[in-house]
Amino acid sequence: MLEISKVADTLANQAAIFNCTFKKAWKYYMHPAITENFSYEDIVFYINVKMKLG
């Protein structure tokens, strides 16, 4: 089972690699096994909270 922290890291890395937004990275570059098990909103929320907490 994937952890939300690993999915968030993967999304951030994909966005950086392809120089695009999180939303575009989620839609075009994330594996379907990930996008079917997590919602984009939950992952972005996690990223935003993690960034605020450092």
Task: Give a verbal description of the structure.
By secondary structure, this protein is mainly α. Helices cover 74% and strands 0% of the residues. The chain contains 4 helices and no strands. Helix 1 packs across helix 2 and helix 1 packs across helix 4. It is globular and about 30 Å long.
Short note summarizing the structure:
It is globular, with a radius of gyration of 10 Å. The chain has helices spanning 4-17, 22-29, 32-35, 40-53.
Give the biggest sheet. Answer: none
For the termini, the CA-CA separation is: 25 Å
Class per helix and strand makeup: mainly alpha
Order of helices and strands: HHHH
| Unreliable residue runs | none
Q: What is the residue-mean pLDDT, rounded to a whole number? A: 94
Radius of gyration from CA coordinates: 10 Å
* Beta strands, count: 0
Q: Tell me the number of helical segments per DSSP (H or I, 4 or more residues long).
A: 4
Q: Which word captures the global form?
A: globular
* Binned strand content: under 5%
Helix content: over 70%
Relevant terms:
54 residues; mainly alpha; globular
Topology record:
Blueprint: H1 4-17, H2 22-29, H3 32-35, H4 40-53
Helix pairs in contact: 1-2, 1-4
